[in-house]
Design brief:
about 270 residues, alpha/beta, four-stranded antiparallel sheet, 9 helices, globular
Length: about 270
């Protein structure tokens, strides 16, 4: 039996005649933190949305915890699974988007408990206990009865993280979770993500926060023009001397590694 929690094989995605990515192969083990980097348009976000079944894909397979998701083979045909089954599979992935996507007419508590009661069918008391645990964990116990309009962007994104992780997914997906935030609010969200990583959660992050990717990741994936151009440890990616396109991409960032050499990185 495979030791990988997530396996992607020969994945292809098209929007009409535009091929977004092709021949994507990835293996992610339980507890790994994987960052996906690359230029805009390289297919990073679309790949996350395929994993979460928010986007269909035309070829290849995605297996999560040994189960093929999204599709099945019927004879020689590839058939999308019924939406009811896809909804069940989607529960196993928690997604945090660039925009917070909170319900504006609901309090912080209600935003977090909604999925627990409607999808997981927890009792109101159990859902509240689970929600309070994660709201406290992201540092918003004093905002539990606040509405999104009463929160900063960083606080709203922390609520979105609490909402996703409260569902106890097998893998957390972060799509540029700090890109919509003012610079002074980025740190508070990154700290929450870092703490979740330290807890052993399996996480895939699309990010332009290069120092953060270097510090938090077990593995970094560089995507370029719809291909997985390189996969390696943070040291291998950020000290690459062999792939000109990767060097060009990294040169657009002032990658501050905190005064440490990559080989001194703590695991």
């Amino acid at each position: 039996m495979s030791q990988n929690l997530l396996e992607i094989r020969s994945l292809e995605k098209w929007f009409g005649k535009l091929q977004v990515f092709s021949d994507v192969d990835l293996d992610i083990r339980q507890g790994e933190v994987v960052s996906i980097i690359g230029s805009s348009g390289s297919g990073k976000t679309t790949l996350l949305r395929c994993i979460n079944l928010l986007e269909p894909f035309q070829k290849g397979t995605i297996r999560l915890n040994g189960e093929e998701i999204g599709y099945k083979e019927v004879g020689a045909r590839r058939v999308r699974l019924p939406e009811s089954l896809i909804a069940r599979q989607r529960i196993h992935t928690g997604m945090v988007f660039q925009q917070f996507n909170l319900f504006p007419h609901m309090t912080v508590l209600k935003n977090v408990t909604l999925g627990l009661t409607k999808v997981q069918k927890l009792s109101a008391a159990d859902a509240r206990a689970q929600a309070e645990k994660w709201i406290n964990r992201v540092g918003l116990a004093d905002k539990i009865n606040a509405y999104p309009s009463q929160l900063s962007g960083g606080q709203q994104q922390r609520v979105a993280i609490a909402r996703a992780i409260a569902m106890n997914p097998l893998v957390m997906l972060f799509d540029e979770a700090t890109s919509a935030l003012d610079p002074e609010l980025v740190g508070e969200v990154l700290q929450v993500i870092k703490e979740l990583a330290q807890d052993g959660n399996t996480m895939i992050l699309v990010t332009h926060e290069m120092r953060f990717a270097y510090e938090i990741s077990d593995k970094v994936i560089f995507m370029d023009k719809g291909k997985v151009a390189k996969v390696g440890t943070p040291k291998e990616i950020f000290e690459d001397r062999d792939l000109p396109r990767l060097q060009e991409f990294l040169s657009t960032f002032n990658v501050d590694l905190g005064g440490r050499r990559a080989e001194d990185r703590d695991h």
